## 1
Amino acid sequence: MNVIDIKNFKKSFGKKEVHRNVSFSVQEGECVGLIGGSGAGKSVLLRSLIGLEKPDSGEVFVEGENVAPYTEDQLIEIRKKVAYVFQNGALFDSMTVYENLAYPLREHTQLREEQISKRIHDLLDEFGLTANDHVYPADLSGGMQKRVGLARSIIINPKVVLYDEPTAGLDPFNTVKIQEMILRLKRKGTTSILVTHDMPTAFAVCDRIYLLKNGMVGAEGTIHDLKKDPEGLLSQFISGQGV
Ligand SMILES: Nc1ncnc2c1ncn2[C@@H]1O[C@H](COP(=O)(O)OP(=O)(O)OP(=O)(O)O)[C@@H](O)[C@H]1O
Ligand SMILES: [Mg+2]
């Protein structure tokens, strides 16, 4: 079954037609890359999956339900299932790493404090952040903040994770750490969409890629298939030909 199905998505901002007609789907357990030039509409599509944007027309199915007409109350349930990893981590500055991670658990689960503590410490270990629980976000490096942001997004075991440029601005060490985290979640069966300009990361973690161009899907396929065609849009995009 497709966990995500976007059908005939159309969206304009003022006179600017960003999505002329976009359809794409993601199967259970797949990691799908969404690439395309700046302003192609990648983030808007991702945001529509949790109701932060509404299409002018078209459908946005999450596990078979069209969330496009959902009210804010209905969207709360969707946002428990579908985690959005914000580019800057979106951490609460006045809270420690521990408090940041505890927040969604206290908000959305019935776990007792000792269970919360265990979950947080397990996740910090898994993400290479051991012993950072009492640190404030401002005292962490940008790469570590991003890892904490990712940890917070996935701490309540979402079924789907949407990554919006998770490796932008990171050094190679932290980039590889993020790739490892995405792959680890994928091995656990998490379904994901990765919006990125970082092609090595897309190639390392994605099963399939969609390339947006002129408000439509310009190319779609497995990385292997798309790379095989040197004249294809993906090859042109990678080589900087501005598709
Ligand atoms: N709230 C908004 N109001 C007006 N225009 C918007 C709004 N949100 C997005 N846009 C426009 O829609 C287009 C697509 O934006 P989007 O953020 O999805 O691009 P993107 O593909 O994610 O680009 P980038 O790679 O630079 O992040 C852009 O031209 C942007 O200016
Ligand atoms: Mg974007």
## 2
Amino acid sequence: MRFTFWEDFLALVFPSTCAVCKRSLYAFEDQICRFCEMKLPIADYHLMPFENDLSQKIKGLAKVGRVMAFLRFAKKGSSQKLLHQLKYKNRPNLGIMLGKRYGRLLLENGFGSEWDYIIPVPLHPHKLRRRGYNQSFCFAQGIGEVLGVEVVQGISRKVDTSTQTKKSRLQRWINVDNVFEVKQQELFSGKRLLLVDDVLTTGATLASCATCLEESQPTSVDLAVIAAGN
Ligand SMILES: [Zn+2]
């Protein structure tokens, strides 16, 4: 690893901080400090990807294969802090770093040639303009870089669903149904797809995207998120 004088200078004036504990980072640390990295709540969904509590949530809603999460989500835990920094603190590189980290875990566990395309859940254009980046796309980029799989932004949103947080599960489901469309259907025909998002809560958004992708007749649709669970 080589750092230019300019990069060192910038780091001195604007030190980057750990996305979890806020400590200033050393040049060899990327987005989080080595202590927080060692304590990341890494989940083991990749060990039982077809049958787990996440797949139970999705399978009634959409036809999917594997359903996996990189981290276990816990309120006030490090995964929540990471997601907050990723979504609201202008840290797209954090998403890429998490994607690379997850990509390496998947590679080590035999997932090196399981997918033809990685597709991020799209952000509504209004939110994209405000945030400047789609955090799910950043996560997808990181995974794609490590696994050598192309990331395609193949799904687009039709309407804004930003008011859905206070609605019931059924209302949410109705709200997200039919809001996505696949732009390049022929591209995904007969392909093995990995659909990625930042979090899995009710699973409604991912299920809606997966259902939308089904119309392209892919061989399989697997799901992966940065964090899930309670
Ligand atoms: Zn830290």
